[in-house]
Design the sequence.
């Protein structure tokens, strides 16, 4: 693989991660949102695989396989199960409507480029130049968390944050050390499983997974 | 031998968790967690002595490293875990008797509490800052179901908010960790060692300030969420008020401090790379905002468990203030504050559990004449509140005074002045609520829950420990100063 092809593929995969974040904001159907997240997981694994192949680093390739199976397969399946068991398939009415959400996301991308100038300047390689994309995806995740009201879309927001940060980790340092990577993967998986159990308990208690039901605790 | 002892620290509660998972909640296995806590304390004492005489103990290829600060945190976690889990034995028995939980619920409680304690211990013995992050996130995971233990609407809501806000907040800290790793790799670090705290401290002068500024900001936001510093505190009153009393005691008493411990570690690096002003500014802002939030929400508080939760936000603010000041006196005081607050808040939350079991409500207005009706519970609850408010002879008085003195001496007199005014407001608010609960004529009949002697003994012992530390810190003086030197360099 020549260097130009490598850089082009890397930019393509990183770009796909960002596009999926926009798709997750744009679509209203919960299944479509989860699919976007699955594609994002695969794109993230592709980034790791490209880095591993380029640097002839077996550890990174192992991590790529891990990311693919966790974020491309397992977690999306868990989310689909939540969606299908709930019987609700659409985000009803986000607090911020879709066109405004997309505009805000565009603003967040600019913000990401502005805040990471120092990081890119330290080592302007093809990998670090794509770091703002990771930060942007994480910021879009925060935005989704703050404005979406379905339990599933909140979990998606959390996972967008996580994917964005994982992208930064890959691009900046070819991924954190393997011990840490394994711990992080386990933590994310367990967090999603816990949220799944909480959603099913909420459904039996409230009969819905609309988070507007959560208003009992206040001062 | 010493590296085995270091590895045993988190292994004791892990073993207890394994047995609890296999055997379920029984009269005999119920005491596993407190036994593990005693073993952790004994191990912590042995390690402290070793560390003070011969320097840090390392294990697992430098992944684990125990210096004075780690040893101090092991002791804090051990002590609070002992109080909380020993009290938990009778609390869970009472819940089983009242039908609030069943055998399966009790088993899950027994396993998760031990895993929770093990995760905190793993965090403070880790040298690798990535492993520290994994451990802090593991505390969120192990406590998520504990918060929702009672399975009511309110506890489910608290559990959801806690998991989402906690995980997302800590994700920011992970971004910070990644950026630190990036900076470290560029300063010459390589592989796993590049995230070791010892390596980062050595490299600190060569780390890129621009990247580190962004990283430290993320770390303060992320770990600050777990510490409960305002404005990232919103999950805390819900989770701490809904969790069962022993879990609230652990979460308020040590989990917040363990998250703060992460910031203490990063402070050592950040102060060299960026100068002390940057982190100081962030911490002072967080501290004063937390104190303001606590004061304003304590005034009209209606729920006594939420009252204790807001008081934890207040104390985390004070610890942040002490850390911001940063002189050896201030850091020693902040560490003593961590210990004193841990013990006092654990006793306060456990006593509040007894009040809840006896009165069946967490409303302040629903409880009246506690001292007359139930002298033991009323007494420990009242004394724990007095300790939390920072009265002598309890140690929080000594540490608050020392933080104030250090602040005035170090040019943060204005911040100390604001903090003192807010403390006065908090004082008035809590005393007003406590008066209503403790004094007067008891309203209802005196039947119902009786506090078992063992539980009462644990709470009284906790109060005694807090009082002894307030009179003289000699048992831990050397360790405390050595731990402070780890932070001040």
Sequence:
């Amino acid at each position: 693989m020549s260097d130009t092809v490598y850089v082009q593929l890397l930019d393509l995969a990183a770009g796909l991660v960002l596009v999926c974040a926009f798709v997750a904001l744009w679509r209203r159907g919960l299944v479509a949102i989860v699919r976007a997240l699955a594609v994002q997981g695969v794109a993230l694994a592709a980034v790791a695989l490209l880095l591993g192949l380029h640097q002839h680093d077996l550890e990174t390739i192992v991590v790529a396989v891990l990311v693919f199976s966790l974020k491309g397969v397992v977690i999306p399946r868990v989310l689909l199960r939540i969606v299908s068991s709930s019987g609700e398939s659409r985000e009803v009415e986000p607090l911020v409507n879709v066109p405004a959400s997309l505009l805000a996301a565009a603003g967040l991308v600019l913000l990401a480029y502005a805040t990471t100038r120092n990081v890119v300047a330290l080592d302007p390689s093809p990998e670090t130049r794509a770091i703002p994309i990771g930060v942007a995806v994480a910021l879009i995740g925060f935005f989704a968390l703050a404005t979406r009201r379905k339990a599933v879309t909140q979990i998606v927001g959390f996972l967008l944050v996580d994917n964005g940060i994982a992208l930064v980790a890959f691009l900046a340092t070819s991924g954190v050390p393997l011990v840490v990577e394994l711990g992080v993967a386990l933590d994310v998986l367990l967090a999603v499983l816990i949220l799944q159990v909480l959603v099913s308990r909420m459904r039996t208690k409230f009969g819905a997974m609309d988070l507007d039901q959560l208003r009992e605790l206040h001062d | 031998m010493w590296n085995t002892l270091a590895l045993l620290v988190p292994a004791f509660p892990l073993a207890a968790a394994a047995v609890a998972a296999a055997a379920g909640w029984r009269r005999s296995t119920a005491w596993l967690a407190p036994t593990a806590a005693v073993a952790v304390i004994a191990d912590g004492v042995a390690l402290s002595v070793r560390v003070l005489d011969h320097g840090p103990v390392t294990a697992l290829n430098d992944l684990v490293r125990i210096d004075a600060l780690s040893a101090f945190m092991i002791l804090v976690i051990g002590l609070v875990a002992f109080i909380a889990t020993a009290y938990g034995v009778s609390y869970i028995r009472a819940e089983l008797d009242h039908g609030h939980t069943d055998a399966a619920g009790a088993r899950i409680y027994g396993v998760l509490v031990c895993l929770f304690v093990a995760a905190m211990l793993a965090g403070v013995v880790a040298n690798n800052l990535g492993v520290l992050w994994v451990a802090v996130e593991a505390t969120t995971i192990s406590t998520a179901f504990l918060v929702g233990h009672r399975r009511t609407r309110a506890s489910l809501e608290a559990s959801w908010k806690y998991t989402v806000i906690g995980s997302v907040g800590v994700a920011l800290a992970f971004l910070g960790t990644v950026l630190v790793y990036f900076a470290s790799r560029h300063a010459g670090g390589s592989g796993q060692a590049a995230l070791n705290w010892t390596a980062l401290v050595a490299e600190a002068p060569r780390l890129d300030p621009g990247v580190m500024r962004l990283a430290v900001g993320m770390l303060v936001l992320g770990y600050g969420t777990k510490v409960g510093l305002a404005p990232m505190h919103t999950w805390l009153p819900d989770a701490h008020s809904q969790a069962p009393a022993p879990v609230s005691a652990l979460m308020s008493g040590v989990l917040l401090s363990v998250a703060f411990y992460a910031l203490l570690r990063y402070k050592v690096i950040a102060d060299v790379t960026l100068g002390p002003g940057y982190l100081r500014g962030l911490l002072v802002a967080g501290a004063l905002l937390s104190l303001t939030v606590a004061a304003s929400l304590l005034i009209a508080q209606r729920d006594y468990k939420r009252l204790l939760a807001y008081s934890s936000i207040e104390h985390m603010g004070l610890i942040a203030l002490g850390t911001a000041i940063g002189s050896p006196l201030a850091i020693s005081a902040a560490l003593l504050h961590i210990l004193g607050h841990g013990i006092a808040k654990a006793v306060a939350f456990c006593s509040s559990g007894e009040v809840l079991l006896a009165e069946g409500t967490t409303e302040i207005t629903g409880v009246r004449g506690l001292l007359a009706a139930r002298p033991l519970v009323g007494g420990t609850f009242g004394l724990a509140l007095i300790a939390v408010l920072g009265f002598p002879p309890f140690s929080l008085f000594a540490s608050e005074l020392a933080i104030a003195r250090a602040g005035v001496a170090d040019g943060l007199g204005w911040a100390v002045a604001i903090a003192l005014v807010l403390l006065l407001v908090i004082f008035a608010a809590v005393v007003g609520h406590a008066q209503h609960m403790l004094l007067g004529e008891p309203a209802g009949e005196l039947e119902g829950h009786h506090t078992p002697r063992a539980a009462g003994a644990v709470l009284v012992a906790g109060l005694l420990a807090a009082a002894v530390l307030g009179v003289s810190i000699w048992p831990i003086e050397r360790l405390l100063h050595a731990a402070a030197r780890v932070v001040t360099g």
Observations:
- Chain A has one domain: 3-211.
- Residues 58-86 of chain A form the longest helix (29 residues).
- Chain A has nine helices and no strands.
- Chain A touches chain B through 49 residues (CB under 8 Å).
